[in-house]
Amino acid sequence: MIKLIAFDMDETFMRGKGVYDRARFSQIYAGLQERGIQILPISGDQYAQIASFFPMADQLTIASFNGSLVHDRGKLVKGSFLPEADIQGALRALKDNHLEKNVMLAGEHYCYFREDTTQDFHDHMDFYFSKFKVLPSFWSLPEQRVAEICLRPPKEQLAEAAAILTEACPDLQVFVSGVGSIDLLLPGVSKGRTLKWLAGKRGIKASEIMAFGDGLNDVEMLQFAGQSYAMQNASDQVKSAAKHVTRYDYRHDGVLDVIEREVLNK
After folding, report:
1. In angstroms, rounded to a whole number, what is the distance separating the alpha carbons of residues 206 and 223?
2. Among candidates 169, 63, 218, which has minimal Cα distance to 151?
3. Is 8 a catalytic residue?
4. What are the residue boundaries of the structural domains of the chain, listed by start?
5. Quick one: fold of 84-185?
6. pLDDT for 23 beyond 90
7. Which PANTHER family match (predicted)?
8. What is the pLDDT of residue 144?
9. pLDDT at 178
10. pLDDT digits 0-9 by tens, 98-150
11. Of 102, 134, 100, 133, which Cα lies nearest the Cα of 118?
12. Nearest 5 degrees, angle CA 90-CA 188-CA 106?
């Protein structure tokens, strides 16, 4: 019996930024509540943005920044924050290699951009991190707890930037996403490990978890869950990590379709 349903947000649960069939999901959520089944939105996006998409957010557990932060009913219950020395080391390496312009720091409460950030980078990041502040520099942050550093170098410099950061930040995880961005996280931070942590806290077995995803950062989560679904729009690499593939893609509510048929028996 399924006790927990975890799903990625962008190009998995949502058709677009904040766009999904809310009436249909409201009925599904009511059915899940009746059966005592929990849901876990788990995304690389910031908590404030994810929560804004759900009217019942104050009832939910939400994992943000790829599992770095976990909020339960609006309260932070798990936080994986970068040490100050590693933040400064990463920023120095980016500055020394002229890569400091298109960088975002993901704080617990806000995301931070520099004033000289390009409009293209800001527009791209705003899709995922819409609660932000713009600063003259990163050397004096309004908040000291940073969960993630994200940058989007020019395509031709992506591999070079990743190599520079891997050498400069040996104590951090350097993750190259499938959309041309680089994320710096604490080692061991991932959606999969966060899902395992939450399942352990709540006494839920892997066989009692259903999970949905479309990206490389979903692979570990899909491998762990007993009932895992790669989206129809996912790459072959992601599909090979899951037990199943959805009938429909994210534009056609593939997640809702599976939950209705396989969990609610509609």
Report:
1. 10
2. 169
3. yes
4. 4-79+189-263, 84-185
5. 3.30.1240
6. yes
7. 5-AMINO-6-(5-PHOSPHO-D-RIBITYLAMINO)URACIL PHOSPHATASE YBJI-RELATED (PTHR10000:SF53), PHOSPHOSERINE PHOSPHATASE (PTHR10000)
8. 75
9. 64
10. 988 899 999 999 999 999 998 888 888 887 888 999 999 888 888 779 999 99
11. 102
12. 45
pLDDT in tens, 112-122: 999 999 888 88
Q: How many CA atoms lie within 13 A of 217 on its CB side?
A: 31
pTM, two decimals, is: 0.93
Topology of domain 4-79+189-263, CATH: Rossmann fold (3.40.50)
Catalytic, out of 8, 45, 218, 253: 8
How far is it, in rounded angstroms, from Cα 43 to Cα 107? Answer: 15
For tokens 């990206």, what's the residue? 215
Locate 57 and state its tokens: 């957010």
